[in-house]
Amino acid sequence: TNPAFKEVLSRIEAHEDCRNLPMISFLILPMQRVTRLPLLMDTICQKTPKDSAKYDNCKQALKEVSKVRSELWVYSSIFSKYIVLCSLILKKISTFEGLKCDFLALQPFPLVSSSRWLVKRGELTAYVEDTGLFSKRTSKQQVYFFLFNDVLIITKKK
Predict the structure, then answer these.
(1) In the chain, what is the straight-line distance between the N-terminal and C-terminal CA atoms, in Å?
(2) For the segment 83-106, what is each residue's pLDDT rounded down to a tens digit?
(3) To the nearest 10°, the Cα dihedral for 135, 138, 143, 145?
(4) Which helix (H) or strand (E) holds 138?
(5) The domain 3-94 is classified under which CATH number: 1.20.900.10, 1.10.3720.10, 1.10.3210.10, 3.40.50.300?
(6) Cβ-proximal residues to 45 (8 Å cutoff; 6+ apart), any chain
(7) What element of type H or E holds 34?
(8) Residue 63: pLDDT band by 50, 70, 90 thresholds?
């Protein structure tokens, strides 16, 4: 949203060293390289004679590079879930953008955790039963829920 930042970014992206590539391509590039390494190592192994002493080293390198790639995907998945969780807290819960969350207001709750991720969120209609002395009344109320893998948080608009 900062126009000065956008202007500087445009200038940098237009520089000949960047070859008119957007900033996002430079952020993604390291991830792409790691995911392509097993393909490269596999090709090298196929071209290496099987009776060569280098063949065993090549197979071991392929195994290790594949392991690194697998670990990278696991950590990438965990990190992306963590980012979603943090942005949710910043946008919806901690700033209470029109939402009231009694549970969080009453007691501290460690919402951000490496073992917790957001499964689903959305608006629902809750039916609330109000029982009086001579009558029973049901009313509708709009609520917003956040379903995590281990906890459900229901908030209501102020």
Answers:
(1) 29
(2) 777 666 656 554 444 444 454 454
(3) 100
(4) strand 136-148
(5) 1.20.900.10
(6) 55, 58, 59, 62
(7) helix 23-47
(8) very high
- Coil/strand/helix, residue 96: coil
Q: In what order do the strands lie in the sheet with 99-100?
A: 99-100, 152-157, 136-148, 118-131
Residue among 131, 155, 130, 154 nearest 140 (CA): 130
C-alpha separations of 92 from 41, 85, 99, 106, 143 in Å: 46, 10, 7, 17, 13
Identify which of 71, 59, 67, 69 has the alpha carbon closest to the alpha carbon of residue 34: 69
Rounded to two decimals, the pTM is: 0.42
Q: Which residues contact 13 (CB under 8 A, 6 or more apart)?
A: 20, 21, 22, 23
Given a contact cutoff of 8 angstroms between Cβ atoms, the answer to whether 118 and 146 are in contact is yes
Q: What is the pLDDT of residues 14-42, one digit of tens each?
A: 888 888 888 877 777 777 777 888 888 89
pLDDT of residue 107: 52
Task: Give kind and range of the element (H or E) at residue 146.
Answer: strand 136-148
Where is pLDDT greater, at 63 or 70?
A: 63
Strand 118-131 vs strand 136-148: parallel, antiparallel, or unpaired? antiparallel
